[in-house]
Amino acid sequence: MAYVVTDACVKDFVCVSECATSAIAPMADDPAAATVSQVYINPDECIDCGSCASLCEHSAIYIGDELPADKAHFAEKNQAYFQ
Fold first, then answer.
1. What is the distance between the alpha carbons of residues 59 and 80, in angstroms, rounded to a whole number?
2. For the purposes of burial, counting CB atoms within 10 Å of the CB of 51, is it exposed (0-12), middle (13-18) or buried (19 or more)?
3. Residues near 41 by beta carbon (within 8 Å), at least 6 away in sequence
4. How many domains does the chain have?
């Protein structure tokens, strides 16, 4: 199950630059970064390594199976960003 970014994201882009598979977007220098409130993880590219979650100082990233019920909709929100 892929990791998921939630609304606690502050867009510091630490996880984006450290992602081994470039599954997290947008990058800081992407014009799209100014138009979104958070970054997103592509569930088709995420390899479930967990490095993004361990780097996030804001506890904004969860493994999909462990999303709190009130944040479950963020799995769809992350996937939708890449469609």
1. 21
2. middle
3. 2, 3, 4, 5, 23, 24, 52, 61, 78
4. 1
Both structure tokens of 43: 């569930």
φ, ψ of residue 14 to 5 degrees: the values are: -65, -45
Which pTM was predicted? 0.94
- Enclosing domain of residue 41: 3-81
Which pair of structure tokens corresponds to residue 38? Answer: 């958070």
CATH of the domain at 50: 3.30.70.20
Alpha-carbon span 61 to 5, nearest angstrom: 4
Strands (E), 1-83: 3-5, 24-25, 40-41, 61-63
Q: What is the pLDDT of residue 30?
A: 96
pLDDT digits (tens, 9 = 90+) for 23-69: 999 999 999 999 999 999 999 999 999 999 999 999 999 999 999 99
